[in-house]
Give the backbone structure.
Amino acid sequence: MSTVNRRNFIKLGAAAASTLTLAGQFSTAFAAGSDKIRVGQIGCGGRGQHDIGCCLRGSENIELVALGDLFEDRLKGHLNALKSGELAGKVNVPADRQFVGWDAYKKVLACDIDLVLLTQTPHFRPMHFRAAVEAGKHVFMEKPVAVDPVGVRHIIESSDMADKKGLKVVAGTQMRRIPHLVDGVKRLRDGEIGDIVSGQCVRLGDALMQWGAMKRKPEWSDMEWHIRRWLFLTWLSGDFIVEQHVHNLDIVNWVMGGHPVKCIGIGGRMNRTDEIYGDVYDNFAVEYEYANGVKIAYMGAQMDGISERCDQNFEGTKGTAYNDFALSVVNGKKYDGPSYDPDLRAHADLQDAIRNDKKLNEGRQIAESSMTAILGRMSAYTGRALKWDWAMNASKLDLSPAKYEFGPLPWPKVPIPCKTPLV
């Protein structure tokens, strides 16, 4: 594995109402369906713990049978938490189905599983997704699904392959299942505020300064230190506009009915300046233009002490709309219908599609939302206005390292706008 680059790695890997009410409703339907769904999971970090919990609550007739992670401590901690919790009865992962290392994902996919959760660091999503599709597994994959255009193209190719195989794919953009947003976006798409003429997307929050391992252990190689600090390294996370704010940009694409056609952005880092915070920025501002000429202004920041915001606003020829993760208001009218856990709903929908062979594939959708965020980051890093078609079809930007092994790997330098090359 030590001399395999990402492109070859993908090829080689491929060869080889309330939450409780909702869970009860879906469990009844699923229990009456077909055989037990056997689940594998690749990636045992914090979000992975949340996702497998939602997955196992999606129906009664489901069981986690295989786990894989790059690090043994992550896998053991994850498994111990599951075994000591309320879902222990749905966990059956003996020692011979616990896999650690660079090839752990291949070993999980070689097990007798129907569904795999891809919850490893975002950089690895394209190779894991390709391998899962080649292995004939249904997939839940966390957002974002890529950190560069090369990865996005792989995701789209794999998504098309999944369609041909009849595989079901759900992405971790749970905002698309929040009832008030489903209702609000439908009203916008139905023309309740007329033609949209402009919009704003704002997300300002804390800097996550104490996230992850803050001190390197002597036995950790450069590569391990990178991955332990993945949130602050663009090659692994995509930077926060991609890793986190993809949720908000996904909502904008949803409202606009597609991806932007071009953008121009700026950004930098003013607070997270210590070397331990890698090469990521702490602020971005991007103007996105869509196919109909409408411009959406995005502003994002991760800074401790900042006045927090997380919302989308749209202006139309007949009114205005506002939405956030808890509220939707269209022309002054608030959504006041039922609510439920969108994370649980995502897994319930996926399991329903698997059991009843319903068409469900969100691969291209999340690929385009990930690329929307990547496009803004590329523009900010380079200082260049960018077109979607060029970035999607011609950009050769591939952030993967020369090889995957625990060994030397330089700590990255912070991108400087107008000096960072456009690739």
Summary: The chain has two domains: 6-175+345-364, 191-335+370-393.
